[in-house]
């Protein structure tokens, strides 16, 4: 029998200005703990308002699964996929809830077998993951300090709004040889994206992520043909069902476990993306080392990783994942390899 052991927790950013000096003094994530045979499996959700999810709604939905889990036993890997599907009618439309459950199941399953989650999910040993570090929109007087924090990272992901401040890209390039990627967060409607892409290409940018909002996806086919850089989908590709619309509109897509529902669907998205000839990136929200470790499992087979969520936190609730010169080093301990720091978890 599986039982729910714990739900809840709040995370606090390590440096608030990395998100915004004026907002978000904290970000609340939900932690979900399952227990079977005295072994604990940990899951996490980072609810996102873009998908109409919040901390309290996720906690309530997860609490409503208690009776369901008392009737379940985790015997084989097939049970993870079955439970993932069965809980959907109970937690819909929250993929964040599914994510928390899915991670807890993968962590628990691997621990019960004395293996890492990566070994159970992928069938082999893991390697370190090179990740980008995110540089959010900020005034020029902050650039020097914030760019200095990125030292050692092999790649930088830069947020650019409708002003498309290429001076910031030039400042980064002058200070680091790191690869540069640009995330527009859907803010470039009405702009000459072809000209912008040429300018960014000339500055050494690798690709552009989500130039328009998902509601404007019909314009992406023309933009992709004209763009001097690859265009990646983020919000336009939330789950497996969106992938069939990606070829011809985007060069690749960003998998986030909290928007697709965990490791189980993320692996399916990765494999389908490969079949469609698309590039794959694994990204994150603001997340503890628990969720980042899960993302790093999927990133073992991806082209790019943007998994700096736990690096951005002042207080990480889990230990066991190392960040060394912009590379994530997964633990070799069973499960996802991380342990809670606070007794409440």
Describe this structure in words.
This protein is an alpha/beta fold and 345 residues long. The chain has two domains: 3-114, Enolase-like, N-terminal domain (Enolase-like, domain 1), CATH 3.30.390; 129-340, Alpha-Beta Barrel (TIM Barrel), CATH 3.20.20.120. 33% of the residues lie in helices and 20% in strands. The longest helix is centred in the first third of the chain and has 18 residues, at 95-112. The protein is globular. The model is unreliable at 10-24 (pLDDT under 50).
Q: Which structural traits does this protein have?
A:
345 residues, alpha/beta, Enolase-like, domain 1, TIM Barrel, 8-stranded parallel beta sheet, 3-stranded antiparallel beta sheet, globular
CATH class of the largest domain: Alpha Beta
| Structure class | alpha/beta
How much beta, percentage-wise?
A: 15-25%
Query: What is the name of the CATH topology of the largest domain?
Result: TIM Barrel
Helix content: 25-40%
Assign an overall shape.
globular
Write down how many β-strands occur, each being a DSSP E stretch of 2 or more residues. Answer: 18
Low-confidence stretches: 10-24
CATH architecture assignment name of the largest domain = Alpha-Beta Barrel
Please give the count of helices: 13
Order of strands across the main sheet: 6-7-8-9-10-11-12-13
Radius of gyration of CA atoms, rounded to a whole number: 20 Å
Explain the layout of strands and helices:
Elements: E1 3-7, E2 12-13, E3 30-36, E4 39-45, H1 55-63, H2 66-70, H3 77-86, H4 88-91, H5 95-112, H6 117-122, E5 129-130, E6 132-135, H7 143-148, E7 155-159, H8 166-175, E8 179-183, H9 193-202, E9 205-209, H10 220-226, E10 231-233, E11 252-256, H11 257-260, H12 263-275, E12 279-283, H13 289-299, E13 304-305, E14 313-315, E15 318-319, E16 322-324, E17 327-329, E18 339-340
Parallel strand pairs: 6-7, 7-8, 8-9, 9-10, 10-11, 11-12, 12-13
Antiparallel strand pairs: 1-3, 2-14, 3-4, 5-17, 15-18, 16-17
Helix pairs in contact: 3-5, 12-13
